Amino acid sequence: ENIIALKVKGDSMIGDMIRDGDVILVEKTEHLSEIQPNQISVISIKDENTCTLKRIRLGKNKDEVTLISSNPSYKAITKKASDIKVEGKVLALLRSYKTDIVNFST
User: Fold this and answer.
1) CB distance 26 to 92 below 8 Å
2) Which of 12, 46, 89, 105 is catalytic?
3) Is 72 helix (H, G, I), strand (E, B) or coil?
4) What are the beta bridge partners of residue 35?
5) Which residues are registered as beta bridge partners of 24?
């Protein structure tokens, strides 16, 4: 009940070997306090109609949160803690390897 599967869209976490099209297993959480520093988490940002997958770093006073991609092409995003909602923390990664069928003759 507390674990959901989500399909990843985008390449912001390729440094953690999470690729576009992968499926992640996520444990639902409701509070920022349930997330460990630098843990990969699913976050929704206030006034945006989407979720993002990032590492989380709390500011000194815990009133700011920095969302960090593992792809160096993306800059870190800093938001007020009140402007984000933790949807869950990543538990596992599932990847399907698709192969084409090739006919070999001997």
Assistant:
1) no
2) 12
3) coil
4) none
5) 6, 93
Specify the 3-state DSSP secondary structure of 81.
helix
49 token code pair: 């109609």
| Exposed/middle/buried for residue 34 (C-beta within 10 Å: 0-12, 13-18, 19+) | middle
Strand partners, 27: 3, 89
User: For residue 56, how many other CB atoms are within 10 A of its CB?
Assistant: 20
Q: Clarify whether 54 is annotated catalytic.
A: yes
Alpha-carbon torsion (22, 25, 29, 32), positive or negative: negative
- Residue 35 near residue 29, CB atoms below 8 Å: yes
Report the alpha-carbon distance of residue 33 to residue 13 in Å, rounded: 22
Q: Tell me whether residue 12 is one of the annotated catalytic residues.
A: yes
CA–CA distance, 89 with 8 (Å, rounded to integer): 14
List, for residues 39-67, the tens digit of each pLDDT value. Answer: 999 999 988 888 999 999 988 888 899 99
Out of 7, 44, 54, 98, pick the active-site residue: 54
**The pLDDT value given to residue 105:** 57
